[in-house]
Each structure stands twice: as structure tokens, then as C-alpha cells.
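FYI - complex with S-adenosylmethionine, inputs then prediction.
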Amino acid sequence: MKNKEMKELFSYIANKYDLLNHLLSFNIDRLWRKKLVKLSHITGREFILDLCTGTGDIAIEFAARKLSVIGLDFSGEMLSIAREKIKKKGLNGKIHLIEADALELPLKSDCFHIVTMGFGLRNIESQEKTLREIHRVLNKNGKCLILEFVPPEKNFRGKIYNFYLTKIIPLIGALISGRKYSYRYLSSSVKGFYTPEKIIKFMENAGFINLKMYRLTSGIVYIFVGEKA
Ligand SMILES: C[S@@+](CC[C@H](N)C(=O)[O-])C[C@H]1O[C@@H](n2cnc3c(N)ncnc32)[C@H](O)[C@@H]1O
């Protein structure tokens, strides 16, 4: 999907995004983000960039552990929700939000210890370009952590998940968000996304080393980790 349509989609569903996320994942999405933070092995001094931050949940997880975070997204509506949540949690001083395109980061090279992206890679216009940008802004030895859905596996559990993804999610999504198309897009984008092996290959091509992937919740979601040499 092109940048313009993507921005429009997220801006439209912004005020229902958190509710639908928690509802459709039975709240497991909270555990996935916590796992990502755990895998970042923070010591307390890192400077973090959370790309495609949306309503800010990953940025908030890090800031709650006293780290300074930049949350970046191109949807002003998603960032407004993030801003409200950050204020409510008293984390104003810890998170700085930037409205910008992740494909062309308005940030200097070599300045972050950690760059994270939760459910952004699948939605972005160019995976290769985004990964190159992440690599550019990371410090030497900096770490990139990507949390993302991958297509359903071909086993029995995968088939059940495929049914849920194809039939249930678009229905509940349409009822709550008021828009049929948005959650049909979620299903098709997950089903049509790259395999975990291909994502690792993209990271390798972007220059990342020490690549690892973690399979969560029967392979519904993966966390990909790589380091800048
Ligand atoms: C599925 S949401 C993920 C939000 C959040 N990271 C989470 O864990 O729930 C994807 C986000 O990516 C943002 N996005 C998509 N393409 C982008 C781009 N090129 N630049 C910046 N943000 C982008 C959308 O606006 C949306 O907020």
C-alpha cells in the first residue's frame, strides 16, 4: 500500500486502534511488546528510537523503565492518542514524539543505541529502505528489534489462525472501527507478508549482523533482532 493510503487508514482508525488491538489479540499484544523490551537487554542508559510508534505503547514501555525515547510516526492522529497516554502516565519528559516518514528519517546518523519497530515493517512502503534507514541512525553495536506478524504457518494451529484472520478479524474490525476495509487490509497484509527467513535476509542485506529471530504465540508473531557492526 502506498504511503498516502496507509497514513489515511491509520488516521481514520486511530481512536479505536488500542481497543481493537487488545480485543483482537486477547490482550496478548501487551506481552509481545514486553518481550521486545526484554530482548533489548537495556542497562538504563540507552537512547531509543521507536519507529511507527503509533499510539506509543512500545515507547511507553521503555520510558516507564526511565529511558529516553523518540517515538516517530507519520500519522498525526495516532500521535495525538500517544500524546494523551504519555501525559496520563506522567512520562512527558521521557518521550519526544516526531511526526515524520520512517522512509526518510529526519535524524542524524549513528545516534541511537536501540531502534524498535512494532507492527510497522509490514505496513511500510519499502522494507529495504526502512531497514537501511534504521541501520544508518543506529550507533556502532546498536541493536534493531522488529516485532511483526508473519503469514500463518501451514500446520493445524496455522489453519485455525488463518480462519480467525480471514473471517473473524475483518468482521469485528469493521463493527468497531466503522470501516470494512481497514481490518480486511490487516488480514491480507499479514497473509501476503514475507516469511521470517525472508525478513532476516532483508536485515542481512541492510548490513545487520548477529541476526536472531524469536517465534512467539505459535508463530503468529516474531521478533527479529540484529546489530550494527
Ligand atoms: C500497526 S501500527 C503500529 C503501532 C505501534 N507500533 C504498535 O505497536 O501498536 C503501524 C503504524 O505505522 C505507521 N506508519 C506506516 N508507515 C509509516 C511511515 N512510512 N512512516 C512513519 N510511520 C508509518 C502508521 O501510521 C501506524 O501508526
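Residues 3, 6, 10, 21, 52-54, 57-58, 73-75, 78, 101-103, 118-120, 123-124 surround S-adenosylmethionine (CB under 6 Å). The chain has a mean pLDDT of 95.
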